[in-house]
Amino acid sequence: MKIDDLLRERHVIVCTGSGGVGKTTTSAALALRAAEVGRRVIVCTIDPARRLAQSMGLDQLGGEPKLVPLQSSSRSKPKGELWAMMLDMKSTFDQMVLEMTSEDRAEQIFQNPFYHHISSTLAGTQEYMAMEKLWELHEEGRWELIVIDTPPTRSALDFLDAPRRLTDFLEGRFLKLLMLPYMKAGKTGLRLINFGTRVALRAVTRITGSDLFADVANFFQQFEGMYETFKERSRRVRELMGARRTAFVIVTAPTEPSLKEARFFAERLKKESIPLGGLVVNRAHAVWGIHGLENPIAVADRVGPGILADALRTYASWRAVSLREERLLAGTLGAIDKTPVWRVPDLADDVCDLKSLREVGALLAAG
Ligand SMILES: Nc1ncnc2c1ncn2[C@@H]1O[C@H](COP(=O)(O)OP(=O)(O)OP(=O)(O)O)[C@@H](O)[C@H]1O
Ligand SMILES: [Mg+2]
Questions:
Q1: Are 325 and 258 contacting, i.e. CB atoms less than 8 angstroms apart?
Q2: pLDDT in tens, 172-195
Q3: Which atom of ligand 1 is nearest to the CA of 18?
Q4: DSSP 3-state percent helix, strand, coil across the chain (nearest 5)
């Protein structure tokens, strides 16, 4: 499948992959390209590099969608619209709490230091909020295509598991068990909490600087009754992810660990019946073979020292890199049949303005 077809047909595209492989770059490049093929598109980026954010007209307070001005040259006149925003995890969480409970109760929750901790630093919150934002944008109905960047998780699979982990956590099965004595007996109950737990909770107390025991107990009481809504919301998003007009795009580096991760992720998507749009092999080194020059080192030895021999040796080493990458990729593709693959070469400079995003988009479309 051509990437332009994907951009024309789908309603949601989720760019995922392991840390640092180019998810944010690919999301922005796909969104720009989609706008140029005529769609009204929004890209929700996560922690974009400052220069990239600026090039899309986003400042530090980029939590609201902004229309990106696209210069129209006669060659690439934009027919659609590109909107961009940055995920603001905390305000997305606040908004969700406000929708789920009364204003008074929400206010109490906002004042709880433990809520601050959860809504801004807890692992998994960012993933949950990215999905929540996706749902909000979908519900707003203003955009034909929504491109979602995903957080820099250690492993791409974390993205699929995080919402369940967060709801489990909020449901408090684990923590409630720990806190139960305290919730029932007030501070005297602390003695009932075992030593290891106390040490762990003290460490958190030091970090958050709050009376953690009381805050946590209050927090779970304040959240009482909201867990079901939380679960319901992640169920809806999960449904949207499995919809026919959704596609996941897995971004990978042409390296063994990254490709392995991409393969696991593709297998997981298949198991969960979530549509995979294709694989972007980013920062690839495609060096073509030259007919008659199958052994450049031998030729370099023959011609003797000099600029030609140096050039031949340089060519030989890059060609070897390219062949190794193709071998690794073939190994991965063997496991994910019929998945479209788009290669983007390792460019000389960072991708941090509209011009270079456009270039990445064109390379994706050509691949
Ligand atoms: N094809 C490319 N050629 C050159 N530089 C690239 C290319 N793709 C991405 N980059 C650069 O690599 C860096 C990392 O890219 P990006 O931020 O998109 O990765 P990411 O997967 O979103 O990272 P994180 O997991 O931290 O969110 C950026 O500086 C970007 O400009
Ligand atoms: Mg990123």
A1: no
A2: 655 555 555 555 554 444 444 555
A3: 25
A4: 60, 10, 30
The burial class, CB within 10 Å (0-12 / 13-18 / 19+), for 151 is buried
Q: Is 294 helix (H, G, I), strand (E, B) or coil?
A: coil
Find how far residue 305's CA is from the centre of its chain.
Answer: 49
What is the best residue among 159, 343, 351 to mutate for testing ligand 1's pocket, by most ligand atoms within 8 Å of CB? 351
Q: Is 182:201 a contact under the CB 8 Å cutoff?
A: no
Distance CA 144, CA 205 (A): 46
What is the best residue among 16, 25, 252 to mutate for testing ligand 1's pocket, by most ligand atoms within 8 Å of CB?
25
Under-70 pLDDT residues of the chain: 60-62, 72-78, 123, 154-156, 171-213, 335
**Residue 205: its pLDDT value, please?**
61
Residue in this structure with the two tokens 């450049």, named with its chain if needed: 296
pLDDT in tens, 102-132: 999 999 999 988 888 888 877 678 888 888 8
Map residue 277 onto helix, strand or coil: strand
Nearest to 298 by CA among 318, 323, 315: 315
User: What's the 3-state SS for 150-210?
Assistant: CCCCCCCHHHHHHHHHHHHHHHCHHHHHHHHHHHHHHHHHHHHCCHHHHHHHHHHHHHHCC
CB neighbourhood size of 18 (10 A):
25
Q: What integer pLDDT is reported at residue 362 of this predicted model?
A: 96
Please give the distance, rounded to the nearest whole angstrom, from the Cα atom of residue 216 to the centre of ligand 2: 31
CA of 252 to the centre of ligand 1 (A): 11
pLDDT at 189: 44
Report the nearest atom of ligand 1 relative to the CA of 149.
22
- Which pLDDT belongs to residue 214? 73
Q: What is the pLDDT of residue 114?
A: 82
* Ligand closest in space to the Cα of 87: 2
**Beta-bridge partners for 145:** 41
Q: How far is the centre of ligand 2, averaged over its atoms, from the C-alpha of 52 (Å)? A: 11
